[in-house]
Amino acid sequence: MKTFRAFIHKEFLHILRDRRTLLVLFGMPVLQIVLFGYAINTEVKEANVAVLDQSRDERSVSLVNALFSANWFRPVETLKSPADIDRVFKAGKAKMVVEIGPDFAKRFAEGRAQIALIADASDPNTAKVVTGYAAQMIAQWSRRFSTEHTVEVLPVEYRMHYNPEMKSVFLFVPGVITVILMLVSAMLTSISIAREKEHGTMEVMLVSPLRPGMIVLGKAVPYLVLSLLNAAFVLVIGLLLFGVPMNGSYLLLLLEGLLFILTSLSLGLLFSTIAKTQQEALMLSLFVLMMPTILLSGFIFPTSSMPWALRAFSNIIPAKHFIIILRGIMLKGNGVAVLWPQTLVLAGMCTVLLGISIKKFNVRLQ
Amino acid sequence: MTGAITIHAKALTKRFGAFTAVDAIDLDVHAGEIFGFLGANGAGKTTAMKMLIGLLMPTAGEARVAGYDVYTQSEAIKRSIGYMGQRFSLYNDLTVLENIQFYGGVYGVPPAELKRRTDSLVHDLGLKEHVNTRLQSLPLGWKQKLAFSVAMIHEPKIIFLDEPTGGVDLITRRQFWELIYAASAKGVTVFVTTHYMDEAEYCHRASIMVDGVMAACDTPAALKEQFKVKTMDEVFYQLARSAQRAE
């Protein structure tokens, strides 16, 4: 135990004295949350919208007015014929066209009115957001007249129960927590083990009575503690600064967090058994871990809008499952009853990864 | 040498697939002896040493270090030996004191005892004013001597040194060898690999490995006599010339 304490003490000294590590540890979370919270905002304001109204009756005019009453959309052009739709998109004049068919008022009274929302899908994120807004506004508008006869909106695939204002920061805070946990646990652990290999101190430790398991644990514990602190820090910023809701159980959040940290640590450990230098460890973490985690986990881009191959691939990324868990707990207040499939997947990944990496770390390999 | 045998190997062999890195070497090293382990790069000395310190499992043969079997008692071996690797084995971002405390802690030296040993070590090396200095700002020579003393912090009976003086100037090498002699005088077995043939002259006995085989093993004087040359350098050259293995 005393041996272990000496080891942990040494690890903390390394961390506290390395400016780069400190920067990653404490600078990254702040930077990321500010970036994602303020700068990279997927909220769409004042999107250009064109209207193709083939009815021009009392109801359709009222609907168009309703659409432009809030500051979400800016009217750019009133189209004459369906052929114009292609033109405005090609010219980049509008993000979305609202097409209202003929005899709108009559059909509305009969309950079979149709509106097509055509969005510029070259920017899928915005397309999704603007059609989402519009569909909601149309639904609201139709409720003014009748509770039975609603307008059928084509194509509407979007429903936003949990984040009605489409506040992207609500979705980003769980994502930032995930990325930071991954970064600190996997990248810093693998780099710190690679550093010892590079400097030859790992050899000395392996010759010492320290057991390999102890070395692994000694490397993992400091980063586990720091990861937890970091996650709490981001969570507090999210709650206080951005008003992100926390509807679920803190205990569940902590337990799931520990599971994810353990999974990331095992990944870091696995990398360190492959990488011989700090540079290699860094590259491995960045390309094998960070890129997929940020791009394919659903952190920024929803996995549901990915091609099937990428969507299938995203399932092997631990972060994807953890983000679902975090969003579930924080935004929806889900409990284990709902989140058990993701939890099970993470636990499975964790067991397999930890098993492989400890086996690979064994000193007497040959 | 008359002391008890502390390192013993018989037909110790290590194969990696079809490649025989170490081919049935025999050796007996006695307590208090300074045993030089020489050989060109790729001759197999690092592999042989790794088997002795419990980092590598032998393919065949037997070996005992400090009376413990390398196959089954590597943990006991690790507790009884000191080791200093080719590369600098201390932490540059820690202070002199923190380095000593870390290794003392790792080897389970009791705190009171560790404090006593730290004081005498710091005094002997003349590092009193630098205990709280981080190693990165100390000259290499001092760090090398400190590394040796730290490797001895748990007062092992045997110390393994793997090219301990690489990249160090002549004066520091002399001073380093004084530390080795002092340890030997206290009965510590010193097992040292080196590239410098003048250092081979300082050893009580030297062995030379060529292509995984132990080509020669005797006192420097006897070896020079046997090969009818004046320096260990020439002994080494004659033997290493016959090597088939590429570096």
What does this structure look like?
The complex is a heterodimer of chains A (366) and B (247). Chain A has 366 residues and is α/β, with parallel strands linked by helices. Chain A is 67% helix and 7% strand. In chain A, strand 4, helix 6 and strand 5 form a beta-alpha-beta unit. About 3% of the residues of chain A have low confidence. In chain B, helix 5 runs parallel beside helix 6 and helix 8 packs across helix 9.
Characterize the biggest β-sheet of chain B.
6 strands, mixed
The structure class of chain A reads alpha/beta
Low-confidence stretches of chain B: none
- Number of alpha- plus pi-helical segments of chain B: 9
Count the beta strands of chain B: 10
N-to-C span of chain B: 34 Å
Strand order of the largest sheet of chain A: 2-1-3-4-5
- Anisotropy-based shape of chain B: globular
Q: Helical proportion of chain B?
A: 25-40%
Q: What gap, in angstroms, lies between the N and C termini of chain A?
A: 29 Å
- Describe the largest sheet of chain A: 5 strands, mixed
Please bin the fraction of helical residues of chain A.
Answer: 55-70%
Report strand % of chain A.
5-15%
- The low-confidence runs of chain A, each spanning 5 or more residues with pLDDT under 50, are 155-166
Radius of gyration of chain A, whole Å = 26 Å
Oligomer designation = heterodimer
How many helices of chain A? 14
Radius of gyration of chain B: 18 Å
Quick overview of this protein structure:
By secondary structure, chain A is α/β, with parallel strands linked by helices. Chain A has helices spanning about 1-15, 20-40, 60-70, 85-90, 105-110, 125-145, 170-200, 200-205, 210-240, 250-275, 280-295, 310-315, 320-330, 335-360; strands spanning about 45-55, 75-80, 95-100, 115-120, 150-155.
Sum up the structure in keywords.
heterodimer; A: 366 residues; alpha/beta; five-stranded mixed beta sheet; 14 helices; 67% helix; 7% strand; elongated; B: 247 residues; six-stranded mixed beta sheet; four-stranded antiparallel beta sheet; 38% helix; globular
